Amino acid sequence: MFKKIMEKLQNLAVAGKGFDPSGLNDPIAMQTQWTPVKSGGANFRTHKLVSIDPNRLEFKSTIGAKMFYLIFMLMGTGAMVVFSLSEISAGESLLNIEMIIPFLIGMIFVVVGAGMFYFGTAPIVFDKYKASFWKGRKAPDEVSDRKEIKYFAELGNIHALQVISEYCRGDKSSYYSYELNLVLEDGNRINVVDHGNLAKLRENAQALSSFLGKPVWDATIRVDNNFTS
After folding, report:
1. CB 110, CB 72: distance < 8 Å
2. pLDDT at position 36 over 50
3. Is the residue at 167 inside a domain?
């Protein structure tokens, strides 16, 4: 437990290392946080920015991300099929303790994979027609109360786009994951995407900057240079 706490503190320290928001000459930059909005991330690109029309941009999940989610489902399904066939070929009943445990483990993989696929492929939308940003399968005009949408902001309430990094430390590998966040007029933030391809994330941030007419606050430059040197 203590080791995990220390690693979390180290990750937060690295995320904002070497960046001074006072250089942005914006009081909201001093008010907002520069640590990750969400912990964890990915070491590969999970989303790509797509222009639907001049007034609507969407982040869509990449083929690689979809394959990653499906692998969990296929592993679980494969495990259940293999154990079922082995029990049947041995003339054993499927309702025995030797079968139930592997079946439950396989089911866990299927459920986790299905959950990742469902949430990982949910729409992430910037829409000038609706003057809104949202993440999820329901648009703001499809719900009775916009507060029902966890990730929602009026485009006019977006003050800046923030790019920050998080050092993710695992048992077998460590990597940087990069967040693109919205900074609102009150200094609060909303996470947009979080993945491992910094070049594409910066490219997407610049495209959104042009689309929204808002600045990009990139806190990853020095961290990225230190990491790659």
Report:
1. yes
2. yes
3. yes
Q: Is residue 38 pLDDT above 70, yes or no?
A: yes
DSSP type of residue 148: G
* Within-domain flag for 159: yes
Tell me if 187 is assigned to some domain: yes
Domain range holding 174? 2-44+136-228
- Check pLDDT > 80 for residue 174: yes
Q: What is the pTM of this model?
A: 0.78
Structural domain count of the chain: 1
Instruction: Tell me, yes or no, whether 209 lies in a domain.
Output: yes
- Residue 100 phi/psi, 5° resolution? -65, -45
The whole-number pLDDT of residue 190 equals 97
Q: State the Cα–Cα distance between residues 109 and 84, nearest whole angstrom.
A: 16
Helix (H, G, I), strand (E, B) or coil at 34: coil
**CA–CA separation, 33 and 13 (whole Å):** 12
Helix (H, G, I), strand (E, B) or coil at 54: coil
